[in-house]
Amino acid sequence: MIDPRTFAGFAPDGVPDPFPENSRFRGLGRRVLVDEQGNETVYLARRIVPLPERFVEVGQVEVEEDDRIDNIAAEQIGDPELYWRIADANGALHPGELTERNGRKLRLTLPEGIPGPSEDER
Question: In sequence order, what are the beta bridge partners of 33?
């Protein structure tokens, strides 16, 4: 069941956004494909994965045996469904690959577009 409180936001196309705040699909516009018979198929616009350099690093976590990316997200960010933020920050198109090698250091970052503290604030 979809929680009606998640409809507070709107996608760029002006339609209420059905995705929750923690979804990587939140804010994507919808597109319509019309076939030769006039049938419409509505789909989401493509999500462009941001470059890792666009994120401000705030820490790192080392992958241990049997780690999963959703468990790391739950522990480090507080929400397992935000695993995609760790994947984006580490340039991974396939999030599961991030935990395949023990000892790998994963970047933990602020969300895209959030600046880090200025030199005066450090």
Answer: 41
Residue with tokens 């705030």: 58
What's the CA gap between 108 and 94, in Å, rounded? 17
Q: Distance (Å, rounded) from C-alpha 116 to C-alpha 122?
A: 10
- pTM for the complete prediction? 0.71
Taking only the tens of pLDDT, the chain with its 122 residues reads 444 444 445 555 566 777 878 777 788 788 899 999 999 998 888 888 889 998 999 999 999 999 999 999 999 999 999 999 999 999 998 999 999 999 999 999 998 888 877 666 65
First and final C-alpha spacing in the chain: 44
